[in-house]
Write a structure and sequence with these properties.
heterodimer, A: 491 residues, alpha/beta, Aspartate Aminotransferase, domain 2, B: OB fold (Dihydrolipoamide Acetyltransferase, E2P), 3 helices, 35% strand
Chain lengths: 491, 127
Amino acid sequence: MITKVRNHPSQNEALLFERSSPGKKAYQLPALDVPPVDAAEALGAANVRAGIEGFPEVSEVEAIRHFTRLSTWNYAIDHGMYPLGSCTMKYNPRINELVARIDGLAWSHPYQPEALAQGSMEVMARVEAALAEITGMDAVTLQPAAGAHGELTGILLIRALLEKRGNPRKKILIPDSAHGTNPATAAIAGYMVQNIKSSDTGVLDVSALDQIVDRDVAALMVTNPNTLGVFEHNIIQAAEILHKKGAMLYMDGANMNALVGIARPGDFGVDVMHLNLHKTFSTPHGGGGPGAGPVAVKKAFEPFLPAPRLKRSARKWTWDYKRKHSIGRVKAFYGNFGVLVRALAYILAHGGEGLRNATVDAVLNAVYIRKQLEPYFDLPYSSPNMHEVVFSDHRQAALGVHTGDIAKRLIDYGFHPYTVSFPLIVHGALMIEPTETEGKLELDEFVGAMISIAKEAETEPQLVKNAPYGTRTSRVDEVAAARKPVLRWKP
Amino acid sequence: MYPENFRYTKEHEWVLVEGDTGTVGITDHAQQELGDIVYVDLPKPGARLEQGKSLGSVESVKAVSDVYAPVSGEVLEINPALADAPETLNSDPHGAAWLVKLRLSAPAEVANLMSAADYQAYIGAEK
């Protein structure tokens, strides 16, 4: 019997604060070879502090080991399938990283004079042009930092145009299948939110829409395909109903992975939309960003786009700040540049044909999972699905096993859980999005795990209800964490 | 389970009308569907509510859901206990965990609501 000092990786990791020891340093300075200066005298005692209270003091190797160990706890797309619905957790090709690390791009600075930033500006101009082509829209801003930020920018653009036309209007219509950020965006932009019910087949009910749209409606915010993974096949009609009354069609581009290279929102009546580069265009987002939420618009909205705008003059790129109708800046500098570089690398490495193939494969994979799992899980909406599929836990719930339990059990099988309890219109939802990344082998392993769990739910429901077993901690107390959160460590 | 003297909405709120005041809450069915409730957002006293419009929201571990006013009226009082003990909504939704009391501005609206028997049939059918 030996006593392991550290039974990595199954042992829990102490906080860095708990490892702290006064006086430890991760650096060593050479001996002072100039006359010493008394900081308090030079700067004023009020501006000098002795230390930072509670700041952990550790050596370099302790800091490195701490974070390296923590990093091995992650489940990442580089480990295996990450079927988190609505999040498009696709593989991030290494070519993206290679390009983003090119010195001239990685070390460029937003305060560089234009003459020394022509390459970076060219990158941004090409991203704008590629996204405009892919979406069928006329102009693109790259400033917004992520999807919800793009939504807000987009709705502010709609407000600006309507205001210019004399009336910003009062309401934004949002289907009950929408992402939660949509109503939040509308409210922050000063609009009232009116929910509209989906039809029995899980799409927009255009006859109901026709009744609702009036001169108070500024826009309809719609995700297409919607959160059920179903294409809004009435979208052109919906756009006509809105446009007839002077209202706009906003598209949440979160699910663009189902459309790239196949259908263009600009061709089916969308006025303003955002894209999530960190979803559709494969920039990393598992760790919380940074993301990028470019907004694409039709010509009428172009004057209102955030300033500055890229402008080609003579034979060089310049920044155009003189935009009197602009809604103003929405982000420091020009957006999350490193993310834009990765997205361009992805787009160019694929080419038009490759992007289209990715879309086709993403849809094929989701349809394959649906067909394989349909005998085992309840499918509340039977309309053809695109890049994701939404089951419900209806059958398993009768045995006391809910979607959250199945998701936890999936961890024991070595997969990241799917999205639970969303969209809200499906009771006990299991929302699965494989993306184009997975080959048949990985898909079959996932399907096998899901079928195995469905059988466990029948024969040994308690096993599923108490999962996971193979993790450091099993079930955490989500309720206590929400009701009585502990937000900081105290000695 | 569902008190006979309450009236119910399709959105799973209840109202108890006494004279010109109404006490509003969410139903036992609603709390079961939401799961463990962790936060309650209520209007301020004096706010004017309109039947069918959102009066606030309840947040569970799963989701945030709007609560809709079963009848129109002015908020007289909100339940002060819920801020510190939102879990009461899970344990006693028809009693201690009432949300708001209001003065009805259109008492005739009560006729649009369901009886206990109708509500039970409604949630039975919804399942």
